[in-house]
Structure of Phospho-sugar mutase:
Amino acid sequence: MAQDPDPETRAELDSLVIAAEAGSAEALDDLHARFDARLAFGTAGLRGEIAAGPNRMNRVLVAQAAAGLASYLHEHAEGSTPSVVIGYDGRKNSAIFAQDTAELMAGAGVRAILLPRLLPTPVLAFAVRHLGTSAGVMVTASHNPPNDNGYKVYLGGIDDGSQIVPPADADIAAHILRVAAAPITGLPRSDAYEVAAESVVDAYIEATAAIARTPSAAVSYVYTAMHGVGWETASRVLERAGFSAPVVVTEQVDPDPRFPTVAFPNPEEPGALDLSFATARKAGVALVVANDPDADRLAIAIPDPSSPEEYRRLTGNEVGALLGWRAAELAEADAATDSGPNGTLACSIVSSPALRAVADAYGLDFQDTLTGFKWVSRATGLIFGFEEALGYLVDPEVVRDKDGISATVAFLDLASSLAADDLTIADQLDRFSERFGHFASDQISLRVTDLADIDVIMARLRSTPPSDVGGVPVSQIDDLKDGFDALPPSDVLRIWLEDGSRVMVRPSGTEPKLKVYIDASSDQGSAAERRSAAESRVRELADGMRALLA
């Protein structure tokens, strides 16, 4: 309380202490929850609920993180002055967390550059490379619940603007803990930080618009920013690229940290796209395009008469497969006449095997990585990468992170080229199945209140591994806890089944969930027959995994 500069969290803590001293067991439990542990700094940086205490997101924790990161940057500066660019979105406290970071970085002797206003995460990722800074900080909780916020760190130099990975995360965490041993009131602050020029945003817009190869005004679409920061930047990019203006979901187009029209501001969540579907039905458009609140993810929906909403959201695997196919086609078209296409398609290990099938068909390299774009972005020779959680990296030379705006450009460009041949995205999905096989996937998310429950389930699966899943015999189980092949250690089980299907089990890196990913494919019969066979097998495996987890 004594070192907290925020009157809101200070008052919150004061009331808890008073209540606990008066005998409230609930208040005492709340204090234990906030103070018995510390919000850990890891490869995802920091992310948590905005509230008082070291196990929550607040100005004290952010100040410690900023000073710790500054110390880390000085340690690795090799005689030069380190630098950092700082961005922030429209969530509660994002602007003040970013300003605190700028002041503390400047006070620590780091050249600090604050982006000119709230902007999407991809603009910050771009700015790290564009400005040639040592690091970048983005204050965002992406698609988490409204009262969460976070602190995402990127590194320049040899890391080329990617998110941090081990051992940098542990090194930064150690610096933060050393800072946290003393009050933040003793940390030097300075207002000698810079505010980036608009030219940084302009450069991002120009580079992202250039992704379009065959823009057309013929494709009609709805766009939603989901109460986030995507629209201002995305609208300028789309106009510059030559696409027609979308029909906008007006209720969700402006930043609003309350996220009043959605229960959970994640396009993957049930109901999150209801307003978009209603707008699309009224406008009769061919596509629904949705960015999450910090615009690093993209969701796509297409007309589907069989759906109650009359639109169906494509899975991240479906969008990733189509964009990966587009990338392979472009690589082939751009290749010299005397050689084939070259480059790497990459996706996380829990994403669909469909991308590997594309890479094999085009003679491209393929690499699977651990979950997260901190890993996907580091694939050697990368030309396209994705992960099933609606993340796509379509222009690695511009942004080394998932980018929902550049992915929007690439997807609309694909839709434009198809429309020129009187084809739809639904047609392209069928063509994919006919050429590469149909790849079906499903996901089970088991949310828990006690994180220890996840450890218990993972330990049980390791000690008593299943012999079959849904009646399909298990042929092999890969335990990644100590690393596997070229993959670093990770708390993941990969279960291979005798029919070639695959089940992945891992704890979520950002939420209290155990996640199960199920993939099956079929290359026999027509596109419809392949789809039916693969989806039927996925349903059987999902039922089998639910029984195992129960």
Remarks:
- The chain has three domains: 7-196, 222-436, 437-549.
- The CA atoms of residues 437 and 449 lie 40 Å apart.
- The mean pLDDT is 95.
